[in-house]
Write a structure and sequence with these properties.
2 copies of one chain form a homodimer. Chain A has 2 domains: about 55 residues, Homeodomain-like (Arc Repressor Mutant, subunit A), CATH 1.10.10; about 140 residues, Tetracycline Repressor, domain 2, CATH 1.10.357. Chain A has 9 helices and no strands. In chain A, about 40% of the residues are buried. Chains A, B: Pfam families: TetR_C_33, TetR_N.
DNA sequence: GACATAAGCTAACGCCCGTAAGTCTAGAAG
DNA sequence: CTTCTAGACTTACGGGCGTTAGCTTATGTC
């Protein structure tokens, strides 16, 4: 993770061959703007440039257009999320039930700690217009695959260990489980205060994983 | 529902005492812009005015600012959604299980048929900034209460009829059920094509209502 | 030390936005 | 027929946006 740039002195130009560093700084600046709590509309090409301490057109050396910046942020944060889920999985007791709750709660925590990030990752707003040529469908389809795969594995382990009675369709079960998690995560990322019981996350996991 | 205005002749001024009609036409124009498929950013004060065939400043006679238009649209569509759920409930066979699936699927259908509307209703994007004085927290809190109440009733009927084993917390169970529905509905409203099995909606309902 | 070039800048264009201030006019009231 | 006013309109300001075109200046190489 690149440390956020907070508009200090005029900014030292990068050395030759290190121009690519600015790319990471631009992403970090966009992320910082997001985390500052305004909504995603505050992340404009110009505001990102200001935050990074560069002139707006300098961005074009690294990104084709404004949606491309958002895509890069989303891709990076998907990796961050995946890493968080993996860490939760690895640090938990090795039994499948514990791992399932650990991964599920890590997912929910991410949305609660970084609501703005979660919204651009899954809220669909920044999605480029259909005639955008700089972002392909493949870019969009590949988002979040790694994180979802981990969920499939853990849910599969629950069924293998006999603590959940799955159907014949593990993938479908995992989709349903993720949708439930997403519903809560998204709501937490959107609403000022989420009503409902505190343990609603665990309830969702129990019900959708069909734990015995 | 007011029929959409498509910028015909210069527009006849409303009669005296009927100035309020324009308010409905403004809401209809905003809804039409939304349904045209662009994202919610396309619904600006000026674009709404163009769509309604009026001058931009004329809106200020009826709405304090741009977020207030969105709030009115959301409030109206929440009523539309509630009506759709009620209709599904009333037209279904009177047994609780059938009604539960009818209401749940009506909810999911709304999101699929009107993805843009669903996104502004639950996507949280249009939410005014904290220092906005024209929209109160009470306005936001009261949104969707009627629709949710119906869900609580139907789920309660399932438990009463003994086809679902609820916990001691009906309200919490209903929240969990709604969150699952919302997860799927939102994803359908956001993504170009939703992966996963076709019956994932029914699976969510079965699992989260704890149907026997 | 000259010079080639990567890295980033300045200036500017055209567009759309929200909103304020003041003006016109059709139709109801007398 | 006049008068009044609700229900609009015109004009304008200031600002932010994405993006293009062309220029500057450090940095590494010879």
């Amino acid at each position: 993770m690149v440390t956020a740039v907070t508009n200090t002195e005029p900014r030292r130009r990068n050395r030759r061959g290190e121009g690519g560093k600015l790319r990471d700084e631009i992403i970090a600046a966009a992320l910082a703007l997001l985390d500052e709590g305004g909504d995603e509309r505050a992340v404009t090409l110009r505001s990102v440039a200001r935050k990074a301490g560069i002139a707006a057109p300098s961005i074009y050396a690294h990104f084709a257009d404004q949606p491309s910046i958002m895509l890069a942020v989303v891709q990076q944060e998907m990796d961050t999320l995946t890493a968080a889920l993996r860490e939760a999985n690895d640090n938990a007791d090795p039994d499948a039930r514990t791992r399932l709750f650990a991964v599920g709660n890590a997912y929910l925590d991410f949305a609660q700690v970084h609501p703005q990030r979660y919204r651009i990752m899954f809220g669909g707003l920044w999605t480029p217009s259909v005639d955008d040529t700089s972002i392909t469908d493949a870019d969009l389809d590949s988002l979040g695959v790694a994180a979802f795969t981990l969920l499939v594995e853990v849910l599969g382990a629950c069924i293998e260990e006999g603590i959940a009675h799955g159907s014949d369709d593990l993938y479908g079960d995992a989709v349903a489980l993720w949708l439930g998690l997403h519903g809560l995560a998204h709501q937490r990322a959107v609403v000022r205060k989420m009503p409902g019981p505190a343990d609603v996350g665990d309830r969702l996991i129990r019900a959708l994983a069909h734990l015995k």
